[in-house]
Structures are given as C-alpha cells and as structure tokens.
C-alpha cells in the first residue's frame, strides 16, 4: 500500500477518471461554443436543450465574447461623418470661446501628419510591431509642426488656451512658437539636454536628437556643459522612471493649470498614460466641479465616459474646422520664429545652429560659440527598423506609468 492509502492501480484509475472528465468538459465547451455561433432560429431542439443544461458554460462563453468584442472595438478607428463632425466642432468652438481657463493635453496623434508615426493607432509603431511588420523610417529632425501644433500656438497667443500639457518628446510644440512657459513636456524633449550641475540648470536646445546614446537609467548624452564642463543629460522620462527635471517637464505649471482649468481639450492622446496622473484630472474635486472634458481621437479612450463631447476625427481636420469657426487664421510654420521663441524665453537657453553631429563640414558637430565635445559617430536615424524598434518607440512616444 502506497502513501495516502491508495494502491498504484487505484491512483492510475483515479487519474484516468480525472482525464476523462476533463476531456468531456472540453468537448461540451466545444459543442456549446459551436451552437452559440449559430443563429437562435437555426438551432435544433436537442441543441436548445444542451444550452439550457449548460447555463454556466453559456454565460462564460458569452462573457468571453463580449470582452473580445469590447477589446476589438477599442482598437477600431471611428470617423464621424462630415456633417456630424462640423456640428461637434461648433459645440467645441463655443466651449473654447466660453472657457475661462482652457488646458490642452496632446499625444502622439497630433504628430502623425508630421511623418512621425503614431504609437497605438492601426498603423502605429506598436501595432505594426505586434503584427511583426517593419516600420518605415522617419527623420524626426526634419519633422515640422502640424496644422494642429500651429493652431494651438495661435490659440495660446489669442489667450484662448492657457496651457499645453504634452506627452510627446518630439519638440514640435516648441517649434510651433509656443512659449516655453505655456507648455509642460511631461516625458521630456528629445532636442533638449541639460547641465544639472549648474545652478539653475543650464539648458541646451539642439536641432538634432540628443538621445542617441541615452537609455533607461542612462541619461548622459556624451556632451559637456560649456560653462562648468559637467556631463549633460537628456530630459527623457522612460517607462518606470519619475521625471525629476523642472524643465522641460514643467510639472508645476501642468498641475497649476489643471487645478485652474474649467475646460480640458485632449488631442490625439490615447490617455492611457495621462489618466495615471490624477493631478491632471482634478479627481479630488467633486465630479460637478471638475473641468469639462473634450476629446478628439479616432479610437476609444479610458476617459470617454467622462467627456462632455467626443469628436471622432483626425486632429488636423478638427483643428482646421475649429479655427474656421473661431475666425482665426492658422499661422504657417517658421523656423526663425522657433529660434526666437526659445531665446526670448530664457537667456540661459542656447540655440545652437548645428545641422547634425555628423553633418557635412562639421564632422564633430562643434561650433565656435559652443565648445562642447561630441565623439564622432554616424548619426542614427531616429526611427525605426528591426532591432532599433524598441529604441525608436522609446524616443517617440514615451510614457511613464509611475503615478504622480
Ligand atoms: Zn554646467
């Protein structure tokens, strides 16, 4: 007699029974699932009986189906028809006119027209990589602000928008002419590196991607501060990191803006990361005192149920219509304006006009006015083929799930 009081043959018999029962359950599941796929009218009396006898299985299978369909719907892009979109934009325009303190939250979706791939959309970096597809290259350094960026800059200039909070690291808000004080780049800016040894921190705004040699927990860019000689660091906040820099993250202004906001307009953000920052949503206020939420996105977002209006349209289409409704012209992009906006904000900020670290006639990327060092190396494209994918994702649209 073996331990447990059962003989070897008894244990084997019990195992056989257990397996047989499992196989019967699996078969039943397959049968019920097959029957459920049929229209009710096409089911035989016997099939109807089987369903009635398998209530638990039926409800489990129906639950699974609902979850599957829900997930699928969340991935789908939905477009309002032109008339519907125009009607919604009129409503949005009225909200913009009447808002006392309007804050705009932006995400990857506003940069897609600048040839910067969206992150989670059907043609986004993440989705394509999930499907095992290659992602086409895009040179971020040459990306220009989109119609949406330019419209936001104009709205801010007209004092219709008080602050912009962006998840994007592509620096396009800054290029659009938006003043530094009016923006919080929560996940950093891939064109800005800082010296944290200097007090206050000394910022260097570049015309090239400074993150070529940086990574998670490794932020030194390889260049040094021309004032004190210390290593410069990038400003990027990676998944799992907490943003500690004052600028360009500007959390203080973001929090202040959110607390004063009576209206929030979310443009092209999946809000999956932003929703994790309770300070941006005034969740401590009672629901009727929280800002009114307007969301522009082709896909579902986790804040849809809170929104007073959800516009299913491309950001550029919505912003074009909105500016028309408001009777405002959208300024063209002007690189010179970008430079002026940077230098006028802060004398410490140095705009270095360097085409690229390995540009023609400038192999080490040095200028007379900025004697920083750069170890010569071929410049990587900022996106995105094969093994560079993860790196490119990291640079393009970073999120930090650390709650603020
Ligand atoms: Zn320094």
TrEMBL record:
Signal peptide: none
MF (Gene Ontology): histone H3K18 deacetylase activity, NAD-dependent; metal ion binding; NAD+ binding
Protein name: NAD-dependent protein deacetylase sirtuin-7
EC number(s) recorded for this UniProt protein: 2.3.1.286
Organism, scientific name: Erinaceus europaeus
Residues the entry annotates as binding Zn(2+): 195, 198, 225, 228
Reactions catalysed according to its record: N(6)-propanoyl-L-lysyl-[protein] + NAD(+) + H2O = 3''-O-propanoyl-ADP-D-ribose + nicotinamide + L-lysyl-[protein]; N(6)-acetyl-L-lysyl-[protein] + NAD(+) + H2O = 2''-O-acetyl-ADP-D-ribose + nicotinamide + L-lysyl-[protein]; N(6)-decanoyl-L-lysyl-[protein] + NAD(+) + H2O = 2''-O-decanoyl-ADP-D-ribose + nicotinamide + L-lysyl-[protein]; N(6)-glutaryl-L-lysyl-[protein] + NAD(+) + H2O = 2''-O-glutaryl-ADP-D-ribose + nicotinamide + L-lysyl-[protein]
GO biological process entries: DNA repair; DNA repair-dependent chromatin remodeling; epigenetic regulation of gene expression; regulation of mitochondrion organization
Keywords in alphabetical order: DNA damage, DNA repair, Metal-binding, NAD, Phosphoprotein, Transferase, Zinc
Residue ranges of the region described as Disordered: 1-26
Catalytic residue list: 187 (proton acceptor)
UniProt biased composition (Basic and acidic residues): 8-26
Pfam families to which the protein is assigned, alphabetical: SIR2
Subunit structure: Interacts with UBTF and the RNA polymerase I complex. Interacts with components of the B-WICH complex, such as MYBBP1A, SMARCA5/SNF2H and BAZ1B/WSTF. Interacts with ELK4, leading to stabilization at target promoters for H3K18Ac deacetylation. Interacts with histone H2A and/or histone H2B. Interacts with DNMT1. Interacts with SIRT1.
Family membership noted in the UniProt record: Belongs to the sirtuin family. Class IV subfamily.
